[in-house]
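Reviewers of the previous submission asked for a worked example of the structure-prediction workflow described in the proposal, so we include one complete record here. The input consisted solely of the amino acid sequence. No template or homolog information was supplied to the procedure at any stage.
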Amino acid sequence: MLHQFLNDFGYLALFLGTFFEGETILVLAGFLAFRGYMDINLVMLVAFFGSYAGDQLWYFLGRRHGRRLLARKPRWQTLGDRALEHIRKHPDLWVLSFRFVYGLRTVMPVAIGLSGYPPRRYLLLNGIGAAVWSIALGQAAYHFGSVLERLLGSVKKYELWVLGILLLLGVGLWITRRIKAARIARKAEQAGKLPEPPAQ
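From that input alone, the workflow returned the following structure tokens.
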């Protein structure tokens, strides 16, 4: 049943998950590939396209509507200010590596677009970054299953537990982000205004 469900919807869910955020669903897909429910090469390929397409979209939205997007949420405004500081110091390095930095994944492409980073250069370096991210994280999750099998013997009897723990970790990270966002919003409200947008 799980095998049929993943054949029908697994890769679509992976694409959508990596389009919007990505880490947790790619780790889950990598582990499921180890268990034989998905193909690891397809997992990495779909994750690459999902991540690449999502970050291209956020970049172009940042170029056109960056300040308005960041101003919508106090947390985004604060993170956007921090992201712009990083980009101005080491632009190419951040385009290549922002996917690996927790908490900046969504805001960073918007800030990169807002910063005036060249579109063709972003098209290329964002592709390289997406490829490295999808291969590294997909392979890490796949080999995580192999390590578990060496430690526990057959993973089959534990796979639902492992999937449950991975899902709980993903939900925990999502809740943590929401709590941080609420705190930032409260602080901005108490201060009586949103943080000032950075000067270009």
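The chain has a mean pLDDT of 77. We consider this example representative of the routine output the project will generate in years two and three.
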